[in-house]
Design goal:
441 residues; alpha/beta; seven-stranded mixed β-sheet; 17 helices; 15 strands; 14% strand
Length: 441
C-alpha cells in the first residue's frame, strides 16, 4: 500500500520506518528542512536502538523516502497518518491540537481518490470527529474516512513494540476504513497480534486510559516505597510479592524518582482536564499527578540527608539524566527537577549519560559533563544513580569508592544491593523504599 506519514518526530518516524519494513511504500513528510536533509542522508535525529539500520535498509529497498512536499506525498496515498505533536497546552493542561488540525486542513486539499486519514497522535476524545469535519469543510467532495490508531511504543524498545505489539487498536466509522487498516497491519496477523477494531471515541480513550493506569502503578509503588522506609520494609521485596499476583503483574512496579517522558506527564494532565470538562473528575489521576511531583521533591530531601543537610560546596556525580535508559529523551525527566536543586544549593554537579548530553546540556546549565563515570566520581562526595542505563549496572564499586572524597551512594533506581555497596567501601547508601544503610560497627 502507499502510505503518507505526516510528522517525523518519535512516533511518526518509528511508525513510518516500521510500516515500510512491512512492505508498504511509505513517504514521511515534515516541514523541517534540516530534519528532512538529515533523514535523506541516512542520519536519525533521535536515539532509538536499531532505528538507523532499519531506516537504511528500507531506503535502499526503495520503500521509504522523505520529503517536505505534502501534496506529492498525499496524492495517491491509500492512508495518510497524522503523527504530529500534541504537547500540553500552556495554562490549562489540555492537549494542544493546533498541529493536528493544521495538518488536517493542509492534507485535505491533496486527497486523491478514497483515502483513510489516520490519527496516530495521542488526542482527546472527539478529535477524530473534528478532523473529519475539518477535511469535509476544506474539501467537500473528498472521498475519505477517518481512523484512530493510537501508538503504544516504549522509547528504547519501540521497534520491537511495533513489530510485536500486545495489540493494535483501530477506531473507525465504516467497514471500508476497517478493511484498509486491517490490510496495513496484515503482516502482524502471522504473529497473532490482536487487532482491536472499535469506534473512534473508544480508541481515543483507550490510549489515555492505558497510560494513566501505568502512571498510577508507578506512583502507587513510589508511595508504598515511602512507607517502607518508615516501617523498615524493603520495597523490592514488596514489589516482587505483589507482582507475582497475576491480577496485578510485575511491570511498572519499580520504585524510583518518579515518572517522566513524552507520554505519562502529558497524557495524565490531558485526561484530568477532559474529566473536568465533562464534570467527571478523574480524582485518582489528579492525585497521581500531584504525588509524582512530590516524589521528585522527596528525592531531593534524600540527597540533602546524604550530604548532612547542605549541598553547598559538595561535589555530586549524577549517573543518568534521561527519563529512562535507551533513549535521549529528556522530557519531564526527574533530572530536570533534581539537578537544578543541586546546582541551586551550591553543589558542583557532574553529569554522565550515554545519550543524554545533546538534549540535556542546554536544559541543565551550571553542570559539567563527563563520558567516564569513574573520572566524574573522582573527588566526589556523592554518587546519584538517576537512570538505570546498563553501563551503570556493573560498575567497579570498589574502584569508584576509592577515589571519592566521601564515598556515599544514592541509588534512586535500586539497581545495587545495599550490602554490596557498603562492602565495596562506601560509607553510606540509600535507595528508594529501602532506607539508608551504613556499615555495621
Amino acid at each position: 500500500m502507499r502510505i503518507a506519514m505526516i510528522g517525523t518526530g518519535y512516533v511518526g518516524l518509528v511508525s513510518g520506518v516500521c510500516l515500510s519494513d512491512f512492505g508498504h511504500d511509505v513517504v514521511c513528510v515534515d516541514n523541517n528542512s534540516d530534519k528532512i536533509a538529515m533523514l535523506e542522508a541516512g542520519q536519525v535525529p533521535i536515539y532509538e536502538p536499531g532505528l538507523d539500520d532499519l531506516l537504511a535498509r528500507n531506503v535502499a529497498a526503495g520503500r521509504l523516502s522523505f520529503t517536505q512536499d505534502m501534496a506529492a506525498a498525499v496524492a495517491g496515498a491509500e492512508a495518510v497518518f497524522i503523527a504530529v505533536g500534541t504537547p500540553t497546552r500552556r495554562g490549562d493542561g489540555h492537549a494542544d491540537l493546533t498541529y493536528v488540525y493544521g495538518v488536517a486542513r493542509e492534507l485535505a486539499a491533496h486527497l486523491d481518490g478514497y483515502t483513510v486519514v489516520v490519527t496516530k497522535s495521542t488526542v482527546p476524545v472527539g478529535t477524530n470527529a473534528e478532523v473529519a469535519r475539518i477535511v469535509r469543510e476544506t474539501r467537500p467532495e473528498a472521498d475519505f474516512d477517518v481512523a484512530s490508531n493510537p501508538e503504544f511504543l516504549r522509547e528504547g524498545a519501540a521497534i520491537d513494540d511495533f513489530m510485536r505489539p500486545d495489540r493494535v487498536v483501530v477506531g473507525v466509522e465504516t467497514e471500508r476504513a476497517a478493511d484498509v487498516m486491517r490490510e496495513i497491519y496484515r503482516p502482524l496477523y502471522l504473529r497473532e497480534a490482536p487487532v482491536v477494531v472499535t469506534d473512534l471515541e473508544s480508541a481515543e480513550m483507550i490510549k489515555y486510559a492505558a497510560n494513566a493506569f501505568l502512571a498510577t502503578k508507578i506512583t502507587f509503588i513510589n508511595e508504598i516505597a515511602a512507607l517502607c522506609e518508615r516501617v523498615g520494609a524493603d520495597v523490592k521485596e514488596v514489589s516482587r510479592g505483589i507482582g507475582l499476583d497475576q491480577r496485578i503483574g510485575n511491570k511498572f512496579l519499580h520504585a524510583g524518582p518518579g515518572y517522566g517522558g513524552s507520554c505519562f506527564p502529558k497524557d495524565t494532565n490531558a485526561l484530568a482536564r477532559i474529566g473536568q470538562d465533562h464534570s467527571v473528575p478523574m480524582r485518582i489521576v489528579e492525585t497521581v499527578i500531584e504525588v509524582n511531583e512530590q516524589v521528585k521533591r522527596r528525592m531531593i530531601d534524600k540527597l540533602l540527608d546524604m550530604l548532612d543537610g547542605s549541598f553547598n560546596g559538595k561535589s555530586v556525580t549524577v549517573l543518568g539524566v534521561t527519563f529512562k535508559p535507551e533513549t535521549d529523551d529528556m522530557r519531564d525527566a526527574p533530572s530536570l527537577t533534581i539537578v537544578p536543586a543541586l546546582v541551586g544549593g551550591g553543589a558542583d554537579v557532574r553529569l554522565v549519560d550515554p545519550q543524554g548530553r545533546r538534549e540535556g546540556e542546554p536544559l541543565l546549565p551550571g553542570t559539567t559533563w563527563h563520558a567516564d563515570p569513574y573520572a566524574a566520581a573522582e573527588g566526589s562526595n556523592l554518587i546519584v544513580i538517576l537512570t538505570e542505563w546498563n553501563e551503570f549496572r556493573a560498575l567497579d564499586l570498589t574502584r569508584m569508592a576509592g577515589t571519592m572524597a566521601t564515598p556515599r551512594m544514592a541509588d534512586l533506581r535500586n539497581i545495587y544491593a545495599p550490602e554490596d555497596v557498603l562492602a565495596a567501601g562506601f560509607e553510606a547508601h540509600t535507595g528508594v523504599g529501602r532506607g539508608a544503610h551504613e556499615p555495621a560497627d
